[in-house]
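Quarterly update from the structural biology core.
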Amino acid sequence: MTKSGIILGFLGAAFLLGLWLFSVTSHFLFLIMLAWLFAAALEPGIRALIARGRSRGLGAAIMGGGAIVAMLILGIVFGDLFFTQMAQFVASVPALATSAVDWVNSTFNTSFDPNAIISSLSVSPSQVASSAESLSGGLLGVVASLSAVMFDLVTVLVFGFYFAADGPAFFRTIASWMPHRGQQVS
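Predicted structure, tokenized:
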């Protein structure tokens, strides 16, 4: 085997290792990117609080706490709206089916019976709920999904607060790895 074959083999192995590493860490890297975007969104408010004499850590805590409170309020308001509309939709499925069958009958001059179609579909709210439960994996699946979402949310918040509170020092550290002309950080 020649020297170039060995080098090519090592390059191929390094490339495959890099792909594997990226596939393993891609979700975490995505969460870090979200945390950085969260910190960048807080930055104007933090700078305004710093200009008013607050420390950077206190400014990050005030802005981050306000963002969390705003997200909770929006989640409560729109979460309730979402579940209310979902319940209304499930309750209106039979009426929608009847309306659709009536439209098909009048448009295509057919004589389908809406009640027969609705009874053959078996779309009562309890059957929709049982189907949704079986699709979601039951209670254990819902708890596992919620815990994964909560873990992701905590990860984003912790790293986001760190990036917001220690942002300039973090960027100075990153800039120190670059040539001198690229170290200008505002």
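Residues 56-108 form the longest helix (53 residues).
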